[in-house]
Amino acid sequence: MGFRITTVVALIGVVCACGWGPAAAAAANTDLPFHRGVNLTGWLQVGSAREIQFTEFTKQDFLNIKSLGCDVIRLPINLHFMTDGAPNYTIDPLFFYFLDQIVDWCEELQIHLILDNHTFDVDASTDVNLDQVLVPVWSQMAEHCRDRSTYLYYEILNEPHGITDSRWAQIQQKAITAIRAVDRTHTIVVTGAGWGSYNNLKYVPVYREGNVIYSFHFYDPFMFTHQGASWTDPSMEPLAGVPFPYGAGPMPACPDQLKGTWIDNSLAAYPRDGTVSRVKELIDIAVAFRDQRQAPVFCGEFGVYRRNSDNDQRVYWYEVVRKHLEENGIPWTIWDYQGGFGLFNQGSNELFEHDLNIPMVEALGLTAPKQTPFVLTPDTTGFDLYTDFVAPGLSNSGYTTQGTVDYYWNLDPAEGTYCIYCAGLARYNAIGFNFRPDKDLSLLVANGSALDLWVRGDTPGAKIELRFLDTKTDDPADHPWRMGTAIDASVAPWDGQWHRVQIPLSDFKDRGAWDNAWFNPKGAFDWSAVDRFEIVSEYHDFVGMQFWFDEIRVTDPTGVR
User: Fold this and answer.
1) Is 402 left (phi over 0), alpha (psi -120 to 50) or beta?
2) What pLDDT score was predicted for residue 29?
3) Which of 165, 305, 312, 482 is 20 to 30 A from 25 in CA distance terms?
């Protein structure tokens, strides 16, 4: 370990003298300047730049991640969706606006940042003509980022699959050539076909441009790491109770609906595959490639889906994999930070000071802050839901089956830079704001606080529902009850102009609940456990209609902003 640290420091010294960054210098041998980190998932994995909820993570989250002992973040991005599509695939400037702020945070905090092109469909094979997208996209990315520090890395594509290794090598080469035409500094992360498997590393060419890192992912034994997963084919949702290692508990029988499939065969092979020695043997394939190729290798993903796995066994698997990677000098980023594979307790609010899975953190060799129980207390002051951005502590819980929702409409907002725009929504579609953690609004209701927003529409006769939904408890008689109010022409004339609307929370009416069936109102809504707020096309569809919303808040009785 001492030699490894000395090597990196010496390389950084060379950087200062010649202007070539630490990542580029380190890539000349098998060492890398980063060691351990996380995948920050979901954030930029959306359908367009206009759907990004930028405040879902903040600089404080980056500080928290660094405080754990991480020095690298892999950032999955639906990169192709950040463009206007064929033929030019021009990247939306709004995406670059967000990306620049993220890079600023990482440079300030000295966190390495891997821009992972995660435009990835588990159900579709990689297009054999994907170079037609990768070349223009990475040309623009490299042009935009070329002058940033070398804490930044380019990962060409996540988990190519359903394509031959030879064809993928050609496509990857074209992307590398496009990047190097404008940026010869930043390190490029490459991978093999076959879902980025360690088995396919040997088929990845020696890219003569240099300054590359070879990446692989690790999820073995798959029967353990993916039990309960819905995205496999066939779905592994029925599978539960697979132990790790084999023998740590009874093996479950193959579920009836999975008999005769490859999952049935894999379960039969589990006595061999579900062992610590087998896990190490498979990781050693990547180690051997690294030593033979004399090139840096990085494990970009490894993890266990927590839904159906035993937590103690899950923690043990992470410890086994992490230690073997580190003993062999392979840096890593777990999949993921928050989410189904994440560092937080299942079913929690995923709050850094309250909900970390401490045994998991320790198994990864990280350092967690002291955890305290979370106590929901009543809000005593107003708060923002949207002011140019969805407010921190909220996440998108909307649902749209047709039409457009744009959270960053910059043409004539009521205040600030942006407003929310929607048009053409189907009936019962919603713009949603999920409170994380839930909100206790009971005192605000009692003291006369109001929902306060600016609204604008262009269609006389339109009607919109605004509503709060409470939490659903374990009580079978409980449901996500609603308290709502309607906006129509009597509240905000649909004349194409902005109108400020203030509605006391106490004026909201009991609307009942939908919970796979309709439940009539019965006065059961709980203002002390509010889960989310929604703007809904409840009464009719919005086809041919446009609406704008801005400066959405809960304000105190004075209504002062």
Assistant:
1) beta
2) 59
3) 165
Asked if 138 and 145 touch (Cβ cutoff 8 Å), the reply is: no
- Euclidean distance between CA atoms 229 and 218, whole angstroms: 16
CA 548 to CA 413: how far, in whole Å? 8
Q: What are residue 336's phi and psi, to 5 degrees?
A: -140, -165
Residues 6+ apart with CB under 8 A from 535: 422, 430, 431, 432, 464, 465, 466, 549
Which residue has 């009942």 as its token pair? 512
**DSSP states along 261-300:** SHHHHHHHTHHHHTSHHHHHHHHHHHHHHHHHHT--EEEE
DSSP characters for 350-368? --TTT-B-HHHHHHTT--P
Q: Is the Cα torsion angle 87, 93, 99, 103 positive or negative in sign?
A: positive
Q: Please give the Cα distance from 88 to 156 (Å, whole number).
A: 18
Q: What is the CA radius of gyration of the chain?
A: 26
Judged by phi (left if over 0) then psi (alpha if -120 to 50, else beta), residue 416 lies in: left
* H or E element, residue 2: helix 2-18
Among 346, 330, 335, 333, which residue's Cα sits nearest to residue 295? 330
User: pTM for this structure?
Assistant: 0.90
What is the signed CA dihedral for 258, 260, 263, 268, rounded to 10 degrees? 120
Q: Give 322-368 pLDDT, tens digit per residue.
A: 999 999 999 999 999 999 999 999 999 999 999 999 999 999 999 99
Q: Under the phi-then-psi rule, with left for phi > 0, alpha for psi from -120 to 50, and beta for the rest, what region is 3?
A: alpha
When the pLDDT of each residue in the chain is averaged and rounded to a whole number, the result is: 93
Q: Give the model confidence (pLDDT) of 204-255 as tens digits.
A: 999 988 899 999 999 999 999 999 999 999 999 999 999 999 999 999 999 9
Q: How far apart are CA 452 and CA 450, in angstroms?
A: 6
Residues 6 or more apart whose CB falls under 8 angstroms from that of 345 comprise 355, 356, 357
Which pLDDT score, from 0 to 100, does residue 540 have? 97
